[in-house]
Design brief:
There is one protein chain. With 206 residues, the protein is α+β, with helices and mostly antiparallel strands. Among the domains are: 2-86, no CATH class; 149-205. Helix content is 41%, strand content 21%. It is built from eight helices and seven strands, in the order αααααβββαααββββ. The protein has helices spanning 25-38, 41-47, 50-55, 58-66, 69-80, 124-136, 140-145, 149-165, and strands at residues 89-93, 99-105, 108-114, 174-177, 180-185, 189-196, 199-205. A four-stranded antiparallel beta sheet has the order 4-5-6-7. Strands 1-2-3 form a three-stranded antiparallel beta sheet, with no helix packed on it. Strand 4 and strand 5 (180-185) form a beta hairpin. Helix 1 (25-38) runs antiparallel to helix 2 and helix 1 runs antiparallel to helix 5. It is elongated and about 75 Å long.
Length: 206
Protein backbone atom coordinates (compact mmCIF):
# COMPACT_ATOMS: atom_id res chain seq x y z
CA UNK A 1 0.00 0.00 0.00
CA UNK A 2 1.15 3.51 -0.63
CA UNK A 3 1.39 4.45 3.06
CA UNK A 4 4.22 1.92 3.37
CA UNK A 5 6.25 3.56 0.65
CA UNK A 6 8.93 6.11 1.46
CA UNK A 7 8.84 9.25 -0.67
CA UNK A 8 12.04 11.23 -0.64
CA UNK A 9 13.80 14.09 -2.35
CA UNK A 10 17.11 13.30 -3.94
CA UNK A 11 19.40 16.26 -4.50
CA UNK A 12 22.75 15.69 -6.18
CA UNK A 13 25.35 18.44 -6.15
CA UNK A 14 28.17 18.71 -8.65
CA UNK A 15 31.43 20.55 -8.10
CA UNK A 16 32.90 22.10 -11.22
CA UNK A 17 34.53 25.23 -12.55
CA UNK A 18 31.42 27.30 -11.97
CA UNK A 19 29.30 26.08 -9.04
CA UNK A 20 25.57 25.94 -9.64
CA UNK A 21 23.08 26.88 -6.92
CA UNK A 22 21.53 24.02 -4.98
CA UNK A 23 17.81 23.60 -5.78
CA UNK A 24 15.51 24.42 -2.89
CA UNK A 25 13.91 21.11 -1.75
CA UNK A 26 10.94 23.03 -0.38
CA UNK A 27 9.86 23.74 -3.96
CA UNK A 28 9.63 20.01 -4.66
CA UNK A 29 7.82 19.46 -1.35
CA UNK A 30 5.21 22.09 -2.22
CA UNK A 31 4.77 20.64 -5.72
CA UNK A 32 4.25 17.16 -4.29
CA UNK A 33 1.78 18.47 -1.70
CA UNK A 34 -0.27 20.12 -4.45
CA UNK A 35 -0.22 17.00 -6.63
CA UNK A 36 -1.12 14.78 -3.68
CA UNK A 37 -4.04 17.04 -2.71
CA UNK A 38 -5.35 16.90 -6.28
CA UNK A 39 -4.70 13.18 -6.64
CA UNK A 40 -2.71 13.96 -9.80
CA UNK A 41 -1.04 10.61 -10.51
CA UNK A 42 0.81 11.83 -13.61
CA UNK A 43 2.34 14.78 -11.76
CA UNK A 44 3.48 12.56 -8.88
CA UNK A 45 4.83 9.95 -11.30
CA UNK A 46 6.93 12.64 -12.96
CA UNK A 47 8.55 13.42 -9.60
CA UNK A 48 9.66 9.82 -9.00
CA UNK A 49 13.24 8.73 -9.46
CA UNK A 50 14.17 6.70 -12.54
CA UNK A 51 14.41 3.57 -10.36
CA UNK A 52 10.88 4.06 -8.99
CA UNK A 53 9.49 4.69 -12.48
CA UNK A 54 11.01 1.43 -13.70
CA UNK A 55 9.16 -0.46 -10.96
CA UNK A 56 5.71 0.78 -12.06
CA UNK A 57 4.26 1.81 -15.40
CA UNK A 58 2.23 5.06 -15.52
CA UNK A 59 -0.97 3.01 -15.80
CA UNK A 60 -0.06 0.91 -12.76
CA UNK A 61 0.80 4.03 -10.80
CA UNK A 62 -2.54 5.67 -11.69
CA UNK A 63 -4.33 2.60 -10.33
CA UNK A 64 -2.29 2.81 -7.15
CA UNK A 65 -3.06 6.50 -6.67
CA UNK A 66 -6.77 6.08 -7.36
CA UNK A 67 -7.08 3.78 -4.36
CA UNK A 68 -5.06 6.00 -2.03
CA UNK A 69 -6.53 9.46 -2.57
CA UNK A 70 -7.51 9.85 1.09
CA UNK A 71 -3.98 8.93 2.21
CA UNK A 72 -2.48 11.35 -0.32
CA UNK A 73 -4.75 14.16 0.85
CA UNK A 74 -3.55 13.59 4.43
CA UNK A 75 0.06 13.59 3.23
CA UNK A 76 -0.59 16.93 1.55
CA UNK A 77 -1.87 18.37 4.84
CA UNK A 78 1.14 17.00 6.73
CA UNK A 79 3.65 18.34 4.21
CA UNK A 80 1.99 21.76 4.17
CA UNK A 81 1.96 22.12 7.95
CA UNK A 82 4.00 24.92 9.49
CA UNK A 83 6.09 22.56 11.64
CA UNK A 84 7.29 20.42 8.74
CA UNK A 85 11.01 19.88 8.17
CA UNK A 86 12.38 19.44 4.65
CA UNK A 87 15.80 17.82 4.41
CA UNK A 88 17.84 17.70 1.20
CA UNK A 89 19.75 14.47 0.74
CA UNK A 90 22.19 13.01 -1.77
CA UNK A 91 23.23 9.43 -2.46
CA UNK A 92 26.57 8.66 -4.12
CA UNK A 93 26.77 5.15 -5.60
CA UNK A 94 30.18 3.57 -6.19
CA UNK A 95 30.99 1.04 -8.95
CA UNK A 96 31.19 -1.82 -6.41
CA UNK A 97 27.63 -1.18 -5.23
CA UNK A 98 28.53 0.66 -2.02
CA UNK A 99 26.75 3.92 -1.22
CA UNK A 100 27.47 7.07 0.74
CA UNK A 101 24.52 9.09 2.02
CA UNK A 102 24.78 12.81 2.62
CA UNK A 103 22.48 15.41 4.14
CA UNK A 104 22.48 19.11 3.34
CA UNK A 105 22.70 21.62 6.17
CA UNK A 106 24.44 24.88 7.06
CA UNK A 107 25.29 25.48 3.41
CA UNK A 108 27.05 22.16 2.72
CA UNK A 109 26.58 18.40 2.45
CA UNK A 110 27.47 16.26 5.47
CA UNK A 111 28.11 12.51 5.35
CA UNK A 112 25.41 10.65 7.28
CA UNK A 113 26.54 7.13 6.39
CA UNK A 114 29.27 5.67 4.20
CA UNK A 115 30.43 2.10 4.23
CA UNK A 116 31.83 1.27 7.65
CA UNK A 117 31.24 4.77 9.03
CA UNK A 118 28.59 4.92 11.76
CA UNK A 119 25.14 5.33 10.35
CA UNK A 120 21.57 4.39 11.12
CA UNK A 121 19.03 3.10 8.64
CA UNK A 122 15.98 5.30 8.18
CA UNK A 123 13.87 2.16 7.71
CA UNK A 124 14.27 -1.46 8.90
CA UNK A 125 14.92 -2.43 5.29
CA UNK A 126 17.84 0.02 5.04
CA UNK A 127 19.41 -1.40 8.19
CA UNK A 128 19.00 -4.99 6.95
CA UNK A 129 20.65 -3.99 3.68
CA UNK A 130 23.50 -2.37 5.60
CA UNK A 131 23.92 -5.56 7.63
CA UNK A 132 24.07 -7.61 4.41
CA UNK A 133 26.73 -5.34 2.94
CA UNK A 134 29.01 -5.28 5.99
CA UNK A 135 28.78 -9.07 6.33
CA UNK A 136 29.50 -9.51 2.62
CA UNK A 137 32.74 -7.56 2.91
CA UNK A 138 33.63 -9.12 6.29
CA UNK A 139 33.78 -5.70 7.94
CA UNK A 140 33.91 -5.87 11.74
CA UNK A 141 33.82 -2.07 12.01
CA UNK A 142 30.85 -1.97 9.66
CA UNK A 143 29.05 -4.61 11.71
CA UNK A 144 29.49 -2.59 14.90
CA UNK A 145 28.05 0.48 13.17
CA UNK A 146 24.65 -1.18 12.58
CA UNK A 147 24.26 -2.67 16.07
CA UNK A 148 22.39 -1.02 18.92
CA UNK A 149 24.63 0.44 21.65
CA UNK A 150 23.71 -2.35 24.11
CA UNK A 151 24.42 -5.15 21.62
CA UNK A 152 27.63 -3.47 20.48
CA UNK A 153 28.79 -3.09 24.08
CA UNK A 154 28.01 -6.76 24.82
CA UNK A 155 29.88 -7.94 21.72
CA UNK A 156 32.88 -5.73 22.45
CA UNK A 157 32.88 -6.99 26.06
CA UNK A 158 32.90 -10.62 24.87
CA UNK A 159 35.74 -9.97 22.44
CA UNK A 160 37.71 -8.00 25.04
CA UNK A 161 37.44 -10.76 27.64
CA UNK A 162 38.43 -13.34 25.01
CA UNK A 163 41.48 -11.24 24.07
CA UNK A 164 42.44 -10.88 27.75
CA UNK A 165 41.92 -14.60 28.37
CA UNK A 166 44.26 -15.48 25.49
CA UNK A 167 47.02 -13.16 26.74
CA UNK A 168 49.11 -16.13 27.97
CA UNK A 169 48.27 -19.10 25.71
CA UNK A 170 51.05 -21.27 27.18
CA UNK A 171 49.31 -21.24 30.57
CA UNK A 172 45.99 -22.56 29.23
CA UNK A 173 44.93 -26.18 29.69
CA UNK A 174 44.51 -28.05 26.40
CA UNK A 175 42.10 -30.98 26.13
CA UNK A 176 43.14 -32.96 23.01
CA UNK A 177 40.79 -35.39 21.28
CA UNK A 178 42.40 -36.70 18.10
CA UNK A 179 42.68 -33.86 15.59
CA UNK A 180 40.74 -31.42 17.81
CA UNK A 181 41.71 -29.54 20.96
CA UNK A 182 39.31 -27.80 23.34
CA UNK A 183 40.53 -24.90 25.46
CA UNK A 184 38.74 -23.29 28.40
CA UNK A 185 39.65 -19.60 28.32
CA UNK A 186 39.38 -17.38 31.42
CA UNK A 187 36.30 -15.17 31.19
CA UNK A 188 33.94 -18.03 30.43
CA UNK A 189 34.98 -18.65 26.82
CA UNK A 190 35.54 -21.95 25.05
CA UNK A 191 37.75 -22.33 21.97
CA UNK A 192 37.97 -25.42 19.78
CA UNK A 193 40.95 -25.97 17.48
CA UNK A 194 41.15 -28.45 14.60
CA UNK A 195 44.22 -29.71 12.75
CA UNK A 196 43.95 -29.55 8.97
CA UNK A 197 46.87 -30.19 6.62
CA UNK A 198 49.33 -30.13 9.49
CA UNK A 199 48.14 -26.72 10.72
CA UNK A 200 45.92 -25.90 13.69
CA UNK A 201 42.97 -23.61 12.99
CA UNK A 202 40.16 -22.21 15.10
CA UNK A 203 37.10 -24.38 14.50
CA UNK A 204 34.74 -22.68 16.95
CA UNK A 205 34.69 -20.24 19.86
CA UNK A 206 32.16 -18.67 22.16
Amino acid sequence: MMRRRSWGILVVGFVGCSPSPLPDPRIAARAYAAAAQAGDADAIYGMLSATSRRALTPAQFRGLVSGEKRELAQQSVDISSTDRRVQAMATLRFPDGEEARMEFGAGRFWISAAGALPGAGRTPEETLDALRRVLARRSYAGLLSVLTPSTRAAMEHDFRTLVDGLAEPDSLTLRPAGDTVSVAVPGGHQVTLRREGGLWKVDDFD
